[in-house]
Design goal:
- The structure is a single chain.
- By secondary structure, the protein is an alpha/beta fold.
- The protein has two domains: 138 residues, Glycerate kinase, domain 1 (Rossmann fold); 222 residues, Glycerate kinase, domain 2, CATH 3.90.1510.
- 39% of the residues lie in helices and 17% in strands.
- It is built from 13 helices and 13 strands.
- It has a six-stranded mixed beta sheet with strand order 3-4-5-6-9-10, with helices on both faces.
- Helix 12 links the parallel strand 12 and strand 13.
- Helix 1 runs parallel beside helix 13.
- The chain is elongated.
Length: 385
């Protein structure tokens, strides 16, 4: 039996590469004769670098940048394709996990560090840069990242805007004359796990700012400021960034990089699928194991395990989803898409306990499923005798 192990991360607990390894050991423990192919997934958020390095090989480069509050930190990016392609996670420089709960404030947090990671990739002479747009602590429309690359965003008196989405209302002039010239020679792809536009009821401020520490009043300010940014861009660059697909991802970083750096945005799963040649691996498998921290209605909106299951159905390969938590309330689409959904935790527990025991309970769940499969195989053999 050939099993493709292709999980997403269990956020707050295990990265996708670790989940993949736990699943593989469990499969081998229960069914030693099986063949396992590992392909950890990412939809563009945290873990994109590790997932791609694991799948296609490469190396990780450490670099000094600034965090969302402009404090110096050590971050990283990945190199694949013999150093020609850089993999950048914006969360590694501008992410929520870099801040303490009391520090969250999208009025002042900046994506500047993400621009520094892009600049580091340019210094490495990369021909392609892939940016994972997920897990951000910012709602600055990507202005900070572009500033780090030489772009200037100034107020009516000619002063450069200070960091943060709270400054965007002061924007008067966009000056890209000093933008790093190497940008024109590099292909930039942005992997996003959401399709939200920059502004509006489904936009960056309305939907995601509260997760980044914004009060309702702050979210209103950020919405107006992003609208102002879009108006200036429309007037001076003749580009409509407000309704751009994926534009609201990572606090508007996607809209900013598409507008100012001529990047191309696409679904994170689609990008990972292409790089790892996932279609071929699915076709060669008898069974697919995936997983995520929480399976609910949000899973239906482009999350990696759901996209994987839909892709696998085209090749008639069964998919089992091992999930940390499953909301079965009125979700017939989930039941139809996955062959089976297996909650891994055997009894009710606190979130903290669930995080601590994810590895153990995941292993137990996979072993149990493998033993059921083994029993089914033995039963089939007996019936044929």
């Amino acid at each position: 039996m050939k099993i493709l192990v292709a999980p997403d991360s269990y956020k707050g607990s295990l990265p996708s590469v670790k989940v993949s390894e736990v699943m593989t050991r469990a499969v081998k423990a229960a069914f030693p004769g099986s063949q396992v192919v590992q392909n950890p997934l990412s939809d563009g958020g945290e873990g994109l670098t590790e997932a791609l390095l694991y799948a296609v090989g490469g190396r990780k480069i450490k670099v000094s940048v600034h965090d969302p509050l402009m404090r110096p930190i050590t971050s990283f990016y990945g190199l694949i394709d013999d150093g020609e392609t850089a993999i950048i996670e914006m969360s590694a420089a501008s992410g929520l996990e870099l801040l303490e709960p009391g520090e969250l404030n999208p009025l002042i947090t900046s994506s500047y560090g993400t621009g520094e990671l892009i600049r580091a990739a340019l210094d490495q002479h990369c021909k392609k840069i892939i940016i994972g747009a997920g897990g951000s602590a910012t709602v600055d429309g990507g202005i900070g990242a572009v500033q780090a690359l030489g772009g200037r965003f100034v107020d009516e008196k000619g002063y450069e805007l200070l960091p943060g989405g709270g400054q965007l209302n002061r924007l008067f002039t966009i000056d890209l004359k000093s933008l790093d010239k190497r940008i024109k020679k590099v292909k930039i792809l942005i992997a996003s796990d959401v399709t939200n536009p920059l502004t509006g009821k489904e936009g960056a401020a309305a939907v995601y700012a509260p997760q980044k520490g914004a009060t309702p009043e702050m979210a209103d300010i950020l919405e107006k400021n992003l609208e102002h940014l879009a108006e200036i861009v429309k007037k001076q660059l003749d580009t409509d960034m407000a309704a751009m697909k994926y534009g609201g991802a990572a606090g508007g970083l996607v809209a900013g990089l598409v507008t100012f750096l001529h990047a191309k945005a696409m679904g994170g799963f689609d990008l990972v699928k292409k790089i790892t040649r996932l279609d071929k691996k699915i076709q060669e498998a008898d069974l697919v194991f995936t997983g995520e921290g929480k399976t609910d209605r949000q899973t239906l909106f482009g999350k990696a395990p759901y996209a994987l299951a839909r892709l696998s159905s085209r090749f008639h390969v069964p998919v089992i989803d091992f999930t940390g938590w499953y909301d079965a309330t009125d979700n017939p689409s989930l039941e139809k898409t996955f062959t089976a959904i297996v909650p891994i935790h055997p009894y009710p527990m606190t979130l903290e306990e669930a995080f601590a025991k994810t590895e153990k309970h995941l292993s137990m769940a996979v072993i149990s499923v493998m033993k059921l499969i083994q029993a089914g195989i033995l039963l089939g053999q007996k019936n044929r005798e």
